Amino acid sequence: MKLLKIKNSKISGKVKISGAKNAALPLIAMTILAKNEIVINNIPNVADINTMLKLLKLLGSEIEFQNNTLKINTNSINSTTATYDIVKTMRASILTLGPLLARFKECKVSLPGGCAIGLRPVDLHIKALEKMGAEILIENGYIHAKCHELVGCEIIFDKITVTGTENIIMAAVLAKGETKILNAAKEPEVVQLCEILKENGVKIEGIGTSTLSIQGQTDLIEIKPFSVIPDRIEAGTYLCAGAIANSKLTITNIIPTHIENIISKLEEMNFSFEKNKNSVTILPTDEIKPVNIVTNEHPGFPTDMQAQFMAVATQANGVSTIEERLFENRFMHVAELNRLGADIKINGKVATIYGNKQLVGADVMATDLRASSALVLAGIIASGQTTIHRVYHLFRGYENLTEKLKNIGVDILLEEE
Is 240 a catalytic residue? Predict the structure, then answer.
């Protein structure tokens, strides 16, 4: 088990943002629908990606992954069972359910694990696939799905689900007729999946809206090389590093429109920015102002950024609030931030952060991916040393984290416990 030791640091410089983990995962699952070897560039080398590749390899895929470039051929798949020992560590493995069922007409996928940030049930995926003609049985912790063929229909999601939308998009590619998805997720990662499919011959309408129409086809698709979009959550996390340290910091290799909702909240906190085509620089301010945040589905404020903003809000001149509307257990970092000297109170779904607090280094525990990054941010400004335990969560989603932080001046050390 590894731990991170962080000391109070002055930061400045540039950070190059990696490919988006949450875009790469469904795109890797999508390769199950392809008839050729596919080359995907800008894949981040993080634990969740390596878990997904391990799963595809166990199913029989031929995989070569180096220097952020993936070559994958799924024509050699000889098993359609995604086993618990892989799936338990990462929820995104559920993304293999739709494409495996569409291509092979039968599969077994373990009920998923991953971050402990709420129930996040897969019943929406299952109901939608059943409506498309699948017979699904849940037994011994596995989703056992089979069909004679999937048939396009109208799917109305009771609530917006990113992975549910992605799963049904992929299933619809090889379904008979048209599939219409209402209340579809609109995240940039969903948009990229649709765009890649469309660029390679799949008829999709409504990309980027809440209503998607996908025309099914009988043939597997041939997919040309492409690159994964930059990670908007990683970009937002480093912007929050600049904010909490009140320092000038530039992030490069971004799509600015993907982080407008993050920049907007930092502007409310009195930060200003220099913006370019694919980079943005946060500038220090004479006063960090408090902020009120409500998490919501895209284009609302991303739930994956609320922990980082909570850390920044500890330094604001006043009282901030964060309302978490998407997940029920996503305030587990509050107790750890309070250990460092923050003053945060929770009432149901709302956290109230009392600012102007001098944080002091202590031993803290990472509980999930984004909570971990909030503790890293707090450690940058806490006096003395902050030691973060169970940091494996961090490496699920942040590529070269320690190297990138060292490059901007953070005194950080990764050690064995």
Answer: no
